[in-house]
Design goal:
By secondary structure, the chain is α/β, with parallel strands linked by helices. It is about 50% helix and about 20% strand. It has a six-stranded mixed beta sheet with strand order 2-1-5-6-8-7, sandwiched between helices. Strands 3-4 form a two-stranded antiparallel sheet. Keywords: Hydrolase.
Length: about 350
Amino acid sequence: MESIAELQISQARFSSFGTSFMGPTLSFFSHNLAKSTPKNTPLFFLAREGYWLEKAYQQYLSGSDKQGNSCYLLASRAFLFKLLLSDSRSYEYSLKGDFNGSFFDLMRTRFLLSNTEIRQVFSDDIIQELLYLPHDRKKIIDVLTQHKELLDNVISSIKKPYLAYLASLGVTAQSTLHLVDLGYSGTIQSLLTILLDKDTVGHYLISSKPGEHRIADNTATMKGYLKEGVKLGEGYLPLDRSMFLESLLTAPFGQFRGIRFNTFDKNTFDFYYGRKVSSQRYFYELEQVMAGALEYCHHTGKHQIEFNSDELELLLNNYLSKPNMIPRSTKHIFDIDDDVTGNGTVNALQFFGLA
């Protein structure tokens, strides 16, 4: 059993790591958000990464004595893929990438349909058919189109409460929706643009597709504050190894998978999540890491300390490329789930050979 002294040393180690590794990144992003967002414009922070990004933004503002309207918003790619399963405008995003398996597996893993829901909508012949993406994309779209009415019935149980949840946060009252995420291609932003039929502005640390994009009848604008116009695999290390940032910037729960009206109070909601990875099971340790980062954001806001992109890139490149820069005691909190792409749980340090 750890002594109090050993526990304090452990906490200090985690906090110090958070200050040096995550602090500058969160401070840089928060500073640019504060500088670039029109006054009184609410910012909605998305997905699991948004949990800590929103806290960092508020810490930065509190240090600088500025006011900012922000809110954490539950969303995930897979949940929105399911919510828009009967909307053909979403297929550009939900059927992108590779897949090799049965139609049943595609519906279950990528679209979060339960076994019962799949069998409720599709025949056994369809369920058992083997598919390959992108080769069979048109065939899949034809099947989904033919079953649109049945899919609408399945989706209605989550669509109505989710829209009510968004309304309760003030999302639906906005003429133009400002969304914040770590990056990179803006899939969740694009899906929310379709779902809500609203113009959106996406604020990202790194944006692979900056500028204005026409999505259905609306415009989605994407901005990247550290870097724009870079894609995975092109050699830009903060993006190619963004898994390091994603594994630490996680909420205490697993992937957002569903929502229902509360049985006893229709004005409140019950949320459902997927399995937890190590950083969520050991969230009390992650909180120690992020405590150092948040304190640093407050400090830089208070003293108006700024980083330029070159300085932040230099720091990140060192941490993301050199062995032993990241303390071994934090190794277990660098797990991330990659279920949407079928890779399961991945440890960033092991994946890039830095363990």
